[in-house]
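Whiteboard transcription, Tuesday session. T.W. wrote the structure tokens on the left side:
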């Protein structure tokens, strides 16, 4: 695992103070387990305040998730500050290339983590936007969520994809650190 939950929260706090838009993007990737493209494609009309939900357009169709109070407040505050209309993209300009906005965000992450590593001995390896989705699944699993819950969040085609995404076999060793040498050559198998 690249970053435990405590360090992850420290990183998000720093980014929130440094660059609110980037914080909002990374928070949405993390909280909803979506990829950067899906987050950058969010439009104002994708937020339903009366039903308190947010709809992402994915390759397989529309996915709707409940809005948390703080996410709703962050999104609506940002939309208000930017004076965005219903058809506007929330987190990118109409003509901005998807590849360029993702590249800029990854560059920002790289610089920020380098700076934190140098100034406060943050001790974190390189992260990309893809890692935020992976970290969400890992943190949920280590907090006790089942693979099926994480699978529903990710909305993968099968459970094996979800296991691969969160690096399940490595997480099991973290979650259940047992020495099985006592079992007389019959190691305990954890599925």
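and on the right, the sequence the group agreed on:
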């Amino acid at each position: 695992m690249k970053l435990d939950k405590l360090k992850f929260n420290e990183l998000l706090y720093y980014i929130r103070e440094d660059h609110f838009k980037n914080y909002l993007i990374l928070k949405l990737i993390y909280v909803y387990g979506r990829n950067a493209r899906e987050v950058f494609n969010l439009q104002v009309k994708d937020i339903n305040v009366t039903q308190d939900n947010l709809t992402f357009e994915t390759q397989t169709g529309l996915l709707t998730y409940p809005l948390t109070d703080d996410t709703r407040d962050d999104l609506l505050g940002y939309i208000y500050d930017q004076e965005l209309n219903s058809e506007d993209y929330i987190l990118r300009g109409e003509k901005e290339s998807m590849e360029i906005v993702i590249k800029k965000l990854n560059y920002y992450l790289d610089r920020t983590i380098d700076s934190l590593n140098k100034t406060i001995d943050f001790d974190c390896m390189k992260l990309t936007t893809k890692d935020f989705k992976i970290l969400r699944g890992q943190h949920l699993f280590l907090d006790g969520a089942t693979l099926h819950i994480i699978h529903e969040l990710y909305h993968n085609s099968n459970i094996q994809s979800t296991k691969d995404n969160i690096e399940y076999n490595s997480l099991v060793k973290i979650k259940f650190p047992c020495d099985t040498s006592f079992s007389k050559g019959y190691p305990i198998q954890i599925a």
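Someone added at the bottom: The radius of gyration is 19 Å.
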